[in-house]
């Protein structure tokens, strides 16, 4: 884990895998396999680009939203409730802010691991994300905290969106590999 395996173990590994090639030497058949794969995928990519161009011509405003890499949340008009010496659960006040953010930001979305009614993360009037309604903002992950965190990471890494995942703190243990 923390040290090089050494020349003796490298030799044993090369012998075990019948690997006669020098470091960084790429056998022709391996190179050809990757090159063929790249060319096949390049055709799909070019086809997708052509389809997206047609989409952009037909729906320029929506295409601009997809191409916009600025995932900054607009929080200019947030109205925070005044306390008035009234105790308010954090999840309730958080929900109020999330609703406003969702109303002002179409690329804000996410969900909960089967707890949205308890942790107040359901975004009202934003629809549910499904295969039939991909424009929806509410994702139902089910009782899969790790998958939820990993999927949210993927959404955020992809860009063009701000996403959230929600669970009770005790369930964060299930999410730790994705959080890390």
From TrEMBL:
GO CC annotations, alphabetized: cytosol
Superkingdom of the source species: Bacteria
One Pfam family hit: Transketolase_N
Catalytic reactions on record: D-sedoheptulose 7-phosphate + D-glyceraldehyde 3-phosphate = aldehydo-D-ribose 5-phosphate + D-xylulose 5-phosphate
A Gene Ontology molecular function term of the record: transketolase activity
Protein encoded by which gene: recP
GO aspect biological process, one term: pentose-phosphate shunt
Designated name of the protein: Transketolase
Matches recorded under InterPro entries: THDP-binding (IPR029061), Transketolase-like_Pyr-bd (IPR005475), Transketolase_fam (IPR033247), Transketolase_N (IPR005474)
Record-annotated Transketolase-like pyrimidine-binding domain positions: 87-180
SUPFAM superfamilies per record: Thiamin diphosphate-binding fold (THDP-binding)
Originating species: Oenococcus oeni (Leuconostoc oenos)
Residue ranges annotated for the Transketolase N-terminal domain, each copy included: 1-68
Coiled coil region boundaries: none
């Amino acid at each position: 884990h923390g040290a090089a395996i050494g020349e003796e173990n490298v030799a044993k590994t090369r012998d075990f895998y019948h690997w006669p090639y020098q470091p960084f030497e790429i056998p022709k058949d391996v190179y050809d396999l990757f090159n063929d794969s790249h060319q096949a995928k390049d055709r799909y990519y070019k086809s997708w680009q052509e389809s997206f161009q047609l989409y952009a011509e037909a729906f320029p405003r929506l295409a601009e939203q997809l191409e916009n890499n600025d995932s900054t949340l607009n929080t200019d008009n947030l109205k925070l409730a005044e306390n008035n010496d009234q105790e308010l659960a954090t999840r309730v006040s958080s929900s109020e802010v999330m609703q406003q953010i969702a109303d002002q930001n179409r690329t804000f979305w996410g969900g909960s691991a089967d707890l949205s009614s308890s942790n107040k993360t359901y975004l009202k009037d934003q629809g549910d994300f499904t295969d039939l309604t991909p424009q929806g903002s509410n994702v139902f992950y089910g009782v899969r905290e790790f998958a939820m965190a990993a999927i949210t990471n993927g959404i955020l890494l992809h860009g063009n969106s701000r996403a959230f995942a929600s669970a009770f703190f005790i369930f964060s243990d299930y999410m730790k590999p994705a959080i890390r």
